[in-house]
Design a protein that fits this description.
Strand order of the largest sheet: 12-15-18-21-24-27-30-33-36-39-41
Number of strands: 41
CATH topology of the largest domain: Spore Coat Polysaccharide Biosynthesis Protein SpsA, Chain A
Shape: elongated
Number of domains: 2
Structural class: alpha/beta
Distance between the termini: 94 Å
Radius of gyration: 31 Å
Oligomer: single chain
Strand content: 25-35%
Number of helices: 8
Amino acid sequence: MMDNRVIILAAGEGRRMRSKTPKVMCEVLGEPMIDWVLDSAAAAGIPEEHVGIVTGSGADIVKAHIAKRSEAYRIFTQDERKGPAHAVMQAEKMLEGGGNVLVLCGDRPFADGAAISAALKEHESSGNSVTVVTADLPDPADRARVIRAEDGSVSAVIESADCTLPQLGITEVASGIFWFRADALAEALPKITADNKQGEYRLSDAVAAICSAGGKAGAYISRDTNIVLGADTRAELLSLNIIAKMRVIAKHLDNGVEFVSTDGVIIGRDVTIGADTRILPGTILRGKTTIGEGCVLGPNTLIENCRIGNGVILNSVQAYDSRVCDHVKAGPFVQLRPGTVLHDGVKIGDFVEVKNSEIGVNTAIAHLTYVGDSDVGKGVNFGCGCVTANYDGINKYRTKIGDYAFIGCNTNLIAPVEIGENATTAAGSTITKSVPPDSLAVERAQTKIIDHWEKNSLRIKKA
């Protein structure tokens, strides 16, 4: 496989999307389509240094995204959009050294690695100069038709606009995925012209050019007809998302996950979910998220790049880059910000935010509370309206709370501060000094009572 390379066509501007975002950066299940295609190439065993990506003029967002994934990818630029073959011409260096070259479209996310590998096997075993990945569609619409010779080999791929009426009746269509022998493609590219209704240099014309030069063309017919699907419009992008969503949900159903409804449910490709977990409406699971067994997630819950244990209940929770251990209950209206760790049995009530903090076993943070940059022991109880004041406007500091401490309602803990084991803070206190274990801290302003106070005494009375 080391002699094989791939050219990914990613120069589309997305004009029909009515978007300033390049087309390949439009998302399917929360991931840019170009990521799906790059992952497919990797799954087919093609190393990153053998991947060439043709971007459009000024597509800085695409180039920056690709560089963030890996510096090994080779980037080429198509300054003028003159068709797919013209894009491949910009990456002619990828044809040097012999071997085979795969061409993929950056806006067709369902070109999976298994199909790519199977097509390569067909390509090599048949001695083809070009192998077209195809699918048989009952309604081919405006897709390019695959023309077969009498012996069953492929003689041409013709765009629908150039098809005769009989050719339009052909149901085998090209997916836009091609395996070429590198030397055959290099010889064919100069022969391709823009003498067609689209005025473009079309890669499909390379098939006829190779056949005319005595090369052999074949096809690999994909069982998955979705392999041909791409997105030029918002409606097509929505269709891709729906298909991808239901594929992922079907996988989790087979693994014993329960969905009471799929309304508003979006689950990323890399998410894993244990058996007997229930996913309620409006739940979004993204990134490298792992969910344990017997959980209840939702409704209206978003989890991104988190590790969730077994028997966890998250109701209307947003969690990012956090770890939630077994039998935790949180919500509704809870936010777990990056760096949060909730140990076994933690209970988080409504309107609570936890950030970059470790919360010990069986600790309860009831409601209307902010815990930031804190190390909290086990069995701690927070009353309503507590705040760890972790930021002085310049620096951030940590708060430490010992096991079984009791933090009274409306306590402000001014970090850096430490509350000892089994200590208590009185309601309404603003704690600025560390509290020893087994003690009560009361830090309030002295009460001043003014007798005979008139509510309107401070108002300017009208004459």
